[in-house]
């Protein structure tokens, strides 16, 4: 994920001084904090009391941190100072603040009102999803504040205490509770609910208390925006703080993080501002500046909040948590609390771009660079089975299922003009776009890839490069690039991808006249999301029966086998015998016995004979429309006939290809049987 991310933030953190904390610098984009015009600044500690003489100058402290942070806007900032607020809840020195104030800090110091000497503090435990932390001040015998036990209602008079803008003097502002329950999903947390109030706040107030007229803590300040000021209510915060005080993290893997969403590139994720030393996140190798894109295979941050992220963290508990990140444009995956660290994924897709920009000697010319795509949108097929990001320029989309392998399968195509893409795939290869089709886990990935790609026109129109089977910590896939298509610098990138944690896989063909289109292929592959496909819909084409009125033609030169229906006992040999080969073919000259049967026949048939035979056989046995090209510049022609025949629990794919050139005609037959069962 690039640093061009535009942050979509609904609230503004108020945790740190504007002089340096990347916490505020990273996300202070909504511009909603009003001037602090109702601040009451006390001249001495005696004026800073509420309720029955509670002296806030002895209970509310300024928190100053240093550490290494990285914000989406400004990059890495080493050893910067941030400032927030906290309040003491136990004479031993335990104090409450926000997680974003102290998370990832290398050092934490606190200052009492008007006191220049710092007191060292350590982080006891944290909850990044509830944005709470407990810190322990050195020493003991401190004055404390207590949580309010009263139900809070709108109109309750309150005061907010803290150190806005890192000012060393404690500040009080007055107001009322405006609303009791507000959505707690924000870019930096996912809290059960928030209080909204109108007491003035500014950066540096984060972690400070809001107090009722008795001096009890009604809530913990977290945010301010044009729509109001927000605090975690005591009823939510107190039980979490009790657990934190016992040294147990709550809903945390050790990050100071913010949800990010780029509304142009459609990139989303959770930006890592800092990482707590010794935390589960640190153990797996997450670093400041990383962007978490998926957790348990689910894309996070797509609503510009931590809601999905926190839901997954909470559901994982202390168990293993699969995670995927981007770092400097590269993809990595691992598991928090798992074995080992982060490992690269999709590296093989990046290699395709390297090959395209520096083609091997067998390829004449690399594709032009093209104009990089700067805007992406997410597209979904009609069944809701598959979605992925495509360039926004590819405005024409085909989302209906396609018939393939004996059934209607979810499919998704996108281009500037999908019909033009269809026409160019197999002829000019000058249209950019993608065509994808979904398979259930019942269909073997490798067998199906062999059948479909070996029958694809780009296998013959382009220079096929090495087919690579690869498995990493996320994908089980096969990838093959085809270059120099139809004598042009265009590339076709075919990839079958199955996520290890998903119940099926997708075959993606990206047609790439430029390197920019190949880069789009990596984006498509990295963003696809898969849901279980609906039950496959059989077609009448699968019955292996010709229409009742079809008459058998025996002893015909165009149909030497005299068969108009396929035999009941289907084997690869029986299919070859039943469908036959074009007229006047001789005996096989070569035969390769593997998982497929391939026969090469020389024949004296003319192009017209072959074309007529293919048309007749296609109609008789119910195969797909034949593919033909007549009269290329060198006088050669290419004809093909493809049949998918359901045979109980398997699928037989019959492919016949005929190549003609002046003085020579060659027929190739291949038959592959694919098991449709797991």
> Structural class of the secondary structure composition?
alpha+beta
Question: Main sheet, how many strands, which sense, barrel?
Answer: 8 strands, antiparallel
Q: Using only CA atoms, what is the Rg? A: 33 Å
> What is the count of helical runs?
12
Report the count of strand segments.
43
Low-confidence stretches: 1-47, 533-567, 588-597
Proportion in helices = 10-25%
Q: Approximately what portion of the residues adopt beta-strand conformation? A: 35-45%
N-end to C-end Cα span: 37 Å
Q: What brief labels describe this structure?
A:
disordered N terminus, 678 residues, 12 helices, 15% helix
Strand and helix map with partners:
Elements: E1 12-13, H1 22-27, E2 39-41, E3 49-50, E4 54-55, E5 60-71, E6 75-88, E7 94-97, H2 99-102, E8 105-111, E9 119-127, E10 132-137, E11 157-162, E12 171-186, E13 189-197, E14 209-211, E15 217-225, E16 228-233, H3 234-245, E17 255-261, E18 268-275, H4 280-284, E19 291-295, E20 298-299, H5 307-316, E21 321-327, E22 330-336, E23 343-345, H6 347-357, E24 376-380, E25 386-391, E26 396-398, E27 402-404, E28 407-409, E29 411-415, H7 418-424, E30 433-440, H8 445-454, H9 458-461, E31 463-464, E32 468-471, E33 475-483, E34 491-499, E35 504-512, H10 515-527, E36 529-530, E37 537-538, H11 572-579, E38 590-593, E39 596-603, H12 607-621, E40 627-629, E41 637-647, E42 650-661, E43 664-675
Antiparallel strand pairs: 1-15, 2-12, 3-4, 5-6, 5-8, 6-7, 7-10, 8-9, 9-10, 11-12, 11-14, 12-13, 13-16, 14-15, 15-16, 17-18, 18-19, 19-20, 19-21, 21-22, 22-23, 24-25, 25-36, 26-29, 27-28, 28-37, 29-30, 30-35, 31-33, 32-33, 33-34, 34-35, 38-39, 39-43, 40-41, 41-42, 42-43
Helix pairs in contact: 6-10
């Amino acid at each position: 994920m690039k640093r061009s991310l535009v942050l979509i933030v609904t609230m503004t953190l108020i945790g740190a001084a504007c002089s340096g904390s990347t916490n505020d610098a990273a996300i202070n984009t909504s511009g909603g904090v009003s001037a602090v015009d109702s601040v009451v600044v006390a001249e001495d500690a005696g004026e800073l009391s509420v309720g029955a003489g509670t002296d806030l100058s002895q209970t509310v402290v300024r928190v100053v941190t240093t550490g290494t942070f990285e914000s989406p806007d400004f990059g890495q900032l080493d050893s910067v100072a941030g400032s927030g607020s906290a309040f003491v809840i136990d004479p031993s020195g335990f104090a409450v603040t926000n997680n974003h104030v102290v998370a990832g800090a290398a050092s934490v110091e606190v200052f009492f009102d008007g006191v220049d000497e710092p007191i060292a503090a350590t982080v006891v435990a944290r909850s990044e999803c509830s944005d709470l932390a407990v810190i322990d001040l050195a020493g003991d015998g401190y004055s404390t504040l207590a949580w309010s036990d009263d139900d809070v209602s709108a109109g309750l008079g309150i005061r907010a205490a803290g150190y806005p803008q890192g000012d060393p003097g404690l500040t009080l502002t007055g107001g009322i509770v405006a609303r009791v329950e507000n959505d707690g999903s924000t870019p930096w947390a996912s809290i059960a609910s928030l209080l909204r109030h109108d007491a003035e706040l500014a950066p540096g107030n984060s972690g400070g208390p809001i107090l009722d007229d008795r001096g009890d803590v009604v809530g913990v300040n977290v945010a301010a925006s044009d729509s109001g000021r927000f605090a975690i209510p005591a009823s939510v915060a107190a039980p979490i703080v009790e657990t934190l005080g016992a040294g147990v993290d709550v809903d945390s893997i050790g990050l100071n993080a913010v949800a990010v969403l780029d509304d142009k590139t459609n990139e989303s994720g959770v930006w890592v501002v800092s990482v707590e030393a010794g935390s589960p996140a640190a153990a797996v190798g997450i670093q400041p500046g990383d962007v978490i894109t998926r957790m348990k295979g689910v894309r996070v941050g797509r609503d510009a909040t931590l809601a999905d992220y926190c839901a997954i963290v909470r559901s994982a508990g202390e168990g293993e948590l699969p995670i995927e990140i981007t770092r400097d444009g590269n993809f990595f995956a691992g598991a928090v609390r798992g074995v080992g660290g982060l490992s690269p994924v999709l590296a093989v897709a990046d290699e395709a771009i390297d090959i395209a920009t520096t083609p091997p000697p067998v390829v004449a010319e690399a594709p032009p660079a093209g104009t990089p795509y700067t805007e992406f949108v997410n597209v979904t097929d009609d069944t809701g089975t598959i979605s992925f990001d495509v360039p926004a320029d590819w405005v024409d989309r085909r989302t209906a299922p396609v018939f393939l392998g004996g059934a209607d399968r979810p499919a998704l195509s996108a281009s500037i003009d999908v019909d033009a893409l269809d026409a160019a795939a197999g002829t000019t290869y000058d249209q950019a776009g993608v065509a994808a089709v979904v398979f259930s886990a019942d269909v073997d990935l490798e067998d199906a890839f062999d059948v479909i790609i070996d029958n694809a026109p780009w296998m013959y129109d382009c220079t096929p490069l090495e087919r690579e089977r690869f498995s990493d910590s996320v994908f089980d896939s096969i990838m093959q690039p085809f270059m120099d298509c139809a004598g042009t610098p265009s590339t076709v990138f075919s990839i079958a991808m199955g996520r290890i944690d998903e119940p099926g896989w997708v075959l993606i063909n990206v047609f790439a006249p430029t390197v920019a289109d190949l880069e789009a292929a990596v984006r498509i592959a990295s963003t696809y999301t898969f849901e279980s496909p609906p039950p496959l819909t059989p077609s009448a084409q699968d019955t292996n029966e010709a229409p009742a009125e079809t008459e058998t033609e025996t002893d015909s030169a165009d149909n030497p086998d005299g068969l108009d229906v396929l035999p009941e006992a289907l084997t690869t040999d029986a299919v070859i015998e039943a469908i036959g080969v074009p007229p006047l073919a001789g005996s096989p000259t070569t035969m390769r016995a593997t998982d497929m049967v391939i026969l090469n026949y020389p024949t004296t048939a003319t192009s017209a004979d072959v074309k007529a035979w293919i048309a007749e056989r296609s109609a008789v046995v119910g195969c797909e429309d034949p593919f033909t090209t007549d009269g290329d510049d060198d006088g050669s022609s290419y004809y093909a006939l493809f049949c998918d025949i359901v045979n109980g629990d398997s699928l037989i794919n019959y492919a016949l290809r005929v190549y003609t050139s002046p003085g020579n005609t060659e027929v190739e037959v291949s038959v592959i049987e694919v098991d449709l069962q797991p």
